[in-house]
Design a protein that fits this description.
Blueprint lengths: L7 H24 L9 H7 L10 H11 L9 H10 L2 H27 L1
């Protein structure tokens, strides 16, 4: 059975960049503590069933929180959540090198073009 992360690239292609990010933000709001505007371990535990994550243990939920908590405050803000979802997708991460290569090629081409003018 495919995991949630396997559907992210399909969603991104079908929805387009803007709508895909909006859907990730909707997922964040489903999991977040409404008073804090952050995903805490407690809010993740309480709301995880909404996204089909109710089979995850406390240790797995805690590990997910730690993986995404880049500022070390013990909670996930919207940006940390979106970054975590992308990082957990093997397909997105496999494409990251290709995206970086294309971006660098575009930058070099633009630089060369502007130097010729």
């Amino acid at each position: 059975m495919a995991g949630f992360e396997d559907f992210l690239p399909i969603m991104a292609v079908k929805l387009g960049e803007h709508d895909f990010m909006a859907e990730l933000c909707n997922g964040f709001r489903l999991l977040a503590d409404s008073g804090l505007g952050l995903i805490t371990l407690e809010s993740l535990r309480r709301n995880s069933a909404l996204l089909g994550l109710d089979s995850l243990t406390d240790a797995e939920l805690r590990a997910m929180m730690e993986e995404g908590d880049s500022d070390g405050d013990g909670a996930l803000n919207e940006t940390e959540f979106c970054v975590l979802m992308i990082r957990l997708s093997p397909s997105f991460m496999a494409e990251a090198e290709n995206w970086l290569h294309k971006a660098l090629v575009n930058e070099v081409e633009e630089t060369l073009t502007s130097c010729k003018k």
